[in-house]
Specification:
elongated
Length: 267
């Protein structure tokens, strides 16, 4: 978009200048190539974003750093919370559930084997030189941990010498606790953004929009961010912005009605 001499910069010019600066910073520092791709998409589709930029600029230009914060949210969501990334996050959760189940099964089997070994050593007339005390195992596991050896090992050894084996849990008990813990584990998201991006029963584009709304809310003044609490982008502008940032295909494009219905469902 061209600008006449002495004419105030348009909203689009201001927004695109900010994006160009953000791009230059990332290129110079050789970071966040995924966000650079999003910036390139936005810059190449400026005409489509004209109305959205006008609305964003009008609402935020008077607040220091609000525009930069807003576009940081857009870039972050489009780069790292797009549908494919959301699917990967869901797979990570499923894999964590699977791993916990495997740990529970393996640890329960190991606990039983430890019990059997103890019984054999007591009844068979044979024994083997294996660890039998939980503190022995801790010492062996921390052999290369200098901090443990310097600060923990001696005090723990002192306590160990004061109480005989009946005061301590057996190795099989220790391992069974690991089994029970893994069996009861329920993966939880680290933050509200992860929760929003993976809460649907099935992965969809809606996950990305939900993550955008949460990230935007977390950047408001009430959460010590730069975006004013009363800022609300119209449904149409949100749809246009995300269509361009995500480079959605013709059959994937969203509109204001889609965003409005999504907002109503997530309230």
């Amino acid at each position: 978009m061209t600008q006449k001499l002495n004419e105030p910069p348009s909203a689009r010019n201001v927004c695109e200048a900010l994006l160009v600066n953000e791009r230059s910073d990332r290129v110079e520092r050789n970071i966040l190539p995924s966000e650079i791709k999003v910036i390139d998409r936005l810059l190449s589709r400026g005409l489509e974003l004209d109305d959205a930029y006008l609305e964003i600029h009008r609402a935020l230009h008077e607040y220091p750093n609000a525009l930069a914060t807003f576009f940081d949210v857009v870039l972050r969501i489009a780069a790292f919370w797009h549908p494919a990334a959301n699917l990967e996050a869901r797979r990570g959760r499923e894999h964590l559930v699977e791993i916990n189940q495997r740990i529970a099964t393996a640890a329960a089997k190991l606990s039983k084997l430890l019990v059997q070994r103890g019984q054999l050593q007591n009844r068979s007339g044979f024994s083997c030189d294996t660890h039998y005390h939980p503190v022995q195992v801790m010492h062996a596991a921390a052999e290369q941990n200098l901090l443990y050896r310097d600060w923990v090992q001696d005090p723990l050894e002192s306590i160990t010498s004061r109480f005989d084996l009946k005061y301590w849990p057996s190795l099989s008990d220790f391992v069974q606790v690991i089994a029970d813990d893994a069996a009861q584990a329920n993966p939880q998201p680290h933050d509200a953004l992860t929760e929003a991006g993976t809460q649907g029963l099935r992965p969809s584009l809606a996950d990305t929009f939900k993550a955008f709304f949460v990230a935007l809310d977390e950047s408001r003044s009430r959460h010590h961010g730069q975006i004013p609490d009363n800022f609300k982008l119209s449904d149409r502008s949100v749809a246009t912005l995300m269509n361009c940032a995500l480079d959605l295909g013709t059959d994937e494009l969203t509109d204001g009605t889609y965003v409005k219905n999504l907002r109503l469902r997530t309230r």
